[in-house]
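Exercise 7.
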Amino acid sequence: MSMNTLTDFLEQAQCQYRAYDLGRIVQKINNSEFQKIAKNEMAYPFPIQQHAFIALTFWQVAAQKEHFIWFLKMPLDEQGLIKITAQTSFIRMVVEAMGEDLTADVSDKLQERLASNPFVFKPSAEKLAIFNANINSAFIRPASSFYAPIQHYFSGQGDWQDWQNLGLQGFADLAARLDHDNNQQKIIDALDYLPEQPLQTLSLCLENQTQISNELATSIAQQANKRLQQGQETSAILLLRALASSTASATANNLESDIESNSASSLENKNEQAMIKQLLNDQFSSQLVHQADWYITIAGRCWTQLEDETLLNRYFESLANHHKALFPQLFADLVAIPSLRDKVLKQLRLTARSPALSEAIGLLFSGLKANT
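Solution. The predicted structure, written as tokens, is:
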């Protein structure tokens, strides 16, 4: 039987599966979309450096075995499609190593052989902790042993300075369980008291969570402004990242359809969208425009906000004026995202732009010609 795509392979092995993007933020890709992605019917929505970084967890219900996980780095073509040849090559390597039973017991030698597969990557400790927390929560498994200490810390019953022994996995577990144990309110109550290090770690974990409430999103935005006023620029940037996956970061198109439905949740979405847009506008008027990490954060984590063409133009204008050397790299990153591609290319045709942006675009075209 033909097995040219990842989904073909998993289905023929009678495996159920879930796919997650690990390139930008840790986020689930629904199975119908992933099937289209695997079959080249849809561009990969979250490309980074011309690759798709994917976590695939799979299992056989009848076998009553634990879940297995592949961390895959699949190359994309110029249209943003996962290369079929790469998928076929990966499948062939797996079949040669394991046969077609993907859930067979794997020896240490076989594990080493699979780990050396060129399409396999090792996630960072941060991404791995967040992914583990997310799938444990999604599959109703217990949190790690780090969860109880983080619960105690965020209850405010101890010393806020006593954070050194808290594990990254505990922060990830807390963020993945916002709808449990009154965790959203605990975080809201703690924000004013958190030292910079635990605040920043919490923000990195929250950026992957969609269930952030309007109240928590508002508190995070307010905290970002407070920390910026206190000169804590790194914390202000990471607090912006904390809202990357929240309802506040819904795309403009989703927002319009929500408003038309006129439901209570739609109005909340509208309020959150306005709130994060205001936070971004405030940061555009701050010293953060001089920080390279701020531009990288917006492109890498908060790119959905740039579907607002006014914000997109403001972003490119500010980037050209303050960090021209970053312009080609971040332009290439954003133009590769399918939902942004047309809007990013439209910026090249605008006649009303600053001399700095005109120069940055000119240098961009000069670089392209030099590489052809």
